[in-house]
Specification:
The complex is a heterodimer. By secondary structure, chain A is α+β, with helices and mostly antiparallel strands. Chain A contains five helices and nine strands.
């Protein structure tokens, strides 16, 4: 008999050391998130997984579950705020879904659909973010980066390479690669690196493969992102 | 050290040697390399990468975070105009434009001959003697057009900044009202001797009995903090003094460190005694670079007097020393967990909490982080007892508070009062007349209007980190709020979505109103953004970024209404303004280069 907390009124069991988000996922409950990935240390930066705990709102990916907590997540108010965050991510970068190779496999897009986002609402920033096409196998399209740092964490913690990092500050925060030239071709990145496989959006693109799965049959074309959460299993699509 | 013909290599070697090749000191090394080379050349990073065994990404990530570190050449002379609202009220932007014209350089760019760059910086803490600038990180006060002329001449002649007239760099204390702290004539070592006779537990008990609360604004109980740190498990404990006085309008710590540094260091030493720490660090904001040598001299003298080092004042085993870390232009590092990240040589991003620094601080060890003024106050408590101190001020706010008064008043400077003083009393003392508003505790604090001037400075009413900016009726409170909103957008660390994007969106909205495209829709948008920033942000910066707008909107509504020139939604885009760049490139500004006359352009 493990301890439980409640999420939107449902009892959620958890084991000591699990965060609210981890326990919810294990119980098959979806809490929107972008910078969280079950294989990496939680970062708590995208804030989409924010839930209400008493009078406070906290990031559920970094807050440890405690017995008796009463957590609200799937509420109109929270989903409205999450939708606004998603819109912020859209306008801060350059996201053109109809022409994007990752359309249908993109978590930002899928989450936006999930939250009923119908427009970007805010005036786009249209930042200038040149792509890095220097590498023979990989294209980096920074236009789509949402600064979740998953590639940073994967390269550092799994690949042991530190190929990626965030530099700059504030609205000028941006992804950099580990080379004096600033070009991916001059790093020791490899296609096998975990870092190249965890991007929730479409920064990392294989050069030799495009539209292998046709639009309409991709991950989130088949079912919405919330439907990929399955009780009892850390699913491949987390 | 043997000099080579390569100045970059020499600078890197010197920095590596000074910090014993310890990668936690990377920020300090980068700062020193820039002082020697005027920027951080890629070759310097090549060397650091090898010697420190750090990935290049890590070094570039740190260098890219701090506003005063340059990965691109920014000129032999790097001029930054302090851009707090108080500097604006004293005409800083006119002086900036004038200097740009004199030196033929565009704001924000480096001159083509690589001589100079001119830009703005967040408040440099000289509000009572502005307009202020930084030249190669050294503070210059009381700028005038004549002084701009002189400085332009010095720059053209490539005169080393160290040879510039000393009067430029004069920074006055301007203490206008002394009380317990600023009036104290405590001899160095006296408080420490009193504390040693009480013993660590006794000292801690006095701090608890004093009801001293943190002077950085949040007001956490100092005794509780010290006790929690003392009781926390760890292999070492650290004492950190937060001298990253970045809140615009605040400059009290500058004076404490200029004229009462012994008290500050002694307070840190008292804390070390109480919690059992051997290592202290003072994190000094980069804008106060000029204080570094002076502070190090004070530390050296204290070592010689056995007030620091091993067996302090002859007590066996009481070993404690202090080192100074300089910041490099990042307001967020005033947040204690971001400050600790910065001390560790990282980007100054606030940590996820809990755990809090008292249990997991510097290098994951228990750490006390207190404000400069808090440590100084602890000396008085060590000497005269907690009960005495608790009797001063109000019930929930023991002791005195130092206010940094600037703006529209006859006598700007420092005013120390027992807690409980009313805003009106301070206004009278500083010779402020015709007062429209006071911004207490800086942009993240509260803006109050005349009906509230009877309110009191105390944790139970208006808590403050010390800033007290006065605005008379000639001031446009919308412009005040817009300046603060620009500040928050510039200083957002960029870690969390709501603050990174939200502060920029807010800035765009305020600029839109300023440009004459505002409608009631935009006010509703501001309220929406405020809700998101309050409820979703990672730290206090995001939580408070809307405060100045909400306060001024509630209290000075006409300043906003006169900008709502449209009842229906109006886009921010303006065809004529969009042509500005084309006009600039072609050097044309005649009627034919315009579509229609619109309201003033945004600076």
């Amino acid at each position: 008999m493990s301890a439980t907390f409640t999420l939107d009124g449902n009892a959620i069991p958890f084991i000591e050391g699990q965060t609210i988000l981890q326990a919810a996922q294990s119980a098959g409950k979806y809490i929107p998130h972008l910078c969280y990935h079950p294989e990496f240390k939680p970062h708590g930066s995208c804030k989409l997984c924010t839930v209400k705990l008493g009078a406070r709102q906290i990031a559920s990916c970094t807050t440890l579950a405690q017995a008796g907590m009463e957590v609200e997540s799937d509420t109109q108010a929270l989903n409205d705020e999450r939708r606004t965050l998603t819109q912020m991510l859209f306008v801060e970068g350059n996201h053109f879904c109809p022409s994007c190779e990752k359309s249908g496999d993109c978590k930002l897009q899928a989450t936006a659909y999930e939250l009923g986002m119908m427009s970007a609402h805010f005036v786009p920033f249209f930042p200038s973010r040149p792509v890095d096409a220097s590498h023979p196998d990989l294209l980096l399209d920074f236009n789509r980066c949402i600064l979740c740092s998953l590639c940073v964490r994967a390269s550092r913690d799994v690949d042991g390479k530190n190929v990626f990092a965030l530099s700059g500050r504030g609205i000028n925060t941006h992804l950099i690669v580990n080379a004096k030239s600033g070009r991916l071709a001059d790093t020791d990145v490899s296609l096998d690196d975990k870092a190249t496989q965890v991007c929730p959006v479409g920064v990392f693109l294989r050069k030799d493969r495009g539209f292998a799965v046709p639009i309409g049959k991709r991950t989130y074309d088949l079912k919405p992102i919330s439907a990929y959460v399955e009780a009892g299993a850390a699913s491949a699509k987390d | 050290m043997a000099g080579t013909s390569d100045p970059v290599a020499d600078a890197v070697s010197a920095a590596l040697a000074r910090y014993r090749g310890n990668p936690h000191y990377i920020l300090q090394m980068l700062r020193e390399i820039q002082e020697a080379c005027d920027w951080i050349p890629p070759e310097a990073i090549d060397r650091l990468q090898v010697e420190l065994r750090l990935p290049r990404t890590k070094i570039e990530g740190v260098a890219g975070f701090y506003a005063f570190l340059y990965a691109q050449p920014r000129g032999l002379y790097r001029v930054l105009f302090s851009d707090n609202i108080t500097d604006r009220m004293l005409g800083n932007m006119e002086l900036l434009d004038y200097m740009c014209k004199q030196l033929w350089v565009e704001r924000g760019k480096t001159s083509e001959d690589g001589l100079v760059s001119i830009d703005t910086a967040s408040c440099t803490g000289m509000c009572d003697q502005g307009p202020a600038i930084l030249v190669n990180n050294y503070a210059i006060t009381r700028m005038t057009a004549a002084r701009v002329d002189e400085i332009c001449e010095l720059i053209r002649n490539k005169a080393p900044v160290s040879d510039w007239p000393a009067d430029y760099f004069r920074v006055d204390d301007q203490v206008q009202r002394k009380d317990l702290l600023l009036g104290s004539e405590l001899a160095p070592g006296a408080a420490l001797a009193a504390a040693l006779s009480r013993g660590p537990e006794g000292m801690l008990a006095e701090i608890k009995a004093s009801n001293l609360r943190g002077r950085g604004g949040a007001g956490f109980g100092t005794g509780l903090k010290w006790e929690a740190c003392r009781n926390a498990q760890g292999s070492a404990r650290y004492v950190v003094c937060n001298a990253d006085e970045g809140e615009p309008g605040t400059f009290k710590d500058r004076v404490l460190l200029s004229s009462h540094a012994d008290m500050v260091f002694e307070g840190m030493t008292l804390c070390a005694l109480a919690i059992g720490s051997a290592q202290g660090m003072l994190y000094l904001r980069g804008e106060y670079r000029y204080l570094l040598e002076r502070l190090n001299a004070v530390l050296e003298l204290r070592r010689r007097r056995k007030l620091l080092g091993d067996n302090i004042l002859g007590r066996p085993g009481f070993n404690f020393d202090i080192e100074i870390h300089l910041g490099a232009g990042a307001y967020i590092c005033g947040e204690e967990s971001a400050l600790i990240e910065s001390l560790e040589g990282k980007r100054g991003t606030p940590r996820n909490r809990p755990p809090f620094p008292v249990t997991h601080g510097y290098l994951g060890q228990p750490t006390v982080v207190n404000n400069v003024e808090t440590f100084a106050a602890s000396c008085l408590i060590a000497q005269r007892g907690g009960g005495w101190y608790a009797g001063i001020g109000t019930n929930a706010s023991a002791g005195t508070k130092i206010l940094s008064v600037s703006g529209d008043c006859a006598r700007p400077g420092l005013y120390e009062y027992p807690f409980g003083v009313s805003v009106g009393e301070v206004l009278q003392a500083c010779g402020a007349t015709d007062v429209q508003a006071v911004q207490v505790s800086g942009p993240s604090g509260i803006c109050i209007s005349a009906p509230e001037f009877s309110r009191r400075i105390a944790f139970e009413d208006i808590p403050t980190a010390g800033a007290f900016m006065v605005f008379n009726h000639s001031r446009d409170m919308f412009e005040v709020a817009r300046n603060f909103v620009h500040f928050f957008a510039h200083e957002s660390c960029g870690f969390c979505t709501p603050c990174r994007v939200g502060t920029s969106l807010l800035k765009k909205l305020m600029d839109k109103l300023n440009n004459g495209h505002g409608s009631p829709y935009d006010l509703a948008e501001i309220e929406n953004l405020n809700r998101i920033l309050q409820s979703m942000s990672h730290c206090g910066l995001g939580h408070s970024a809307c405060n100045p707008v909400l306060d001024t909107m509630a209290k000075f509504r006409p300043a906003y209404e006169k900008r709502l020139q449209h009842q229906e939604f109006e886009p921010a885009f303006d065809l004529d303004r969009a042509l500005r760049k084309a006009r600039q490139m072609t050097g044309r500004d005649d009627a034919g280069a315009h579509f229609a006359v619109t309201s003033g352009e945004t600076k």
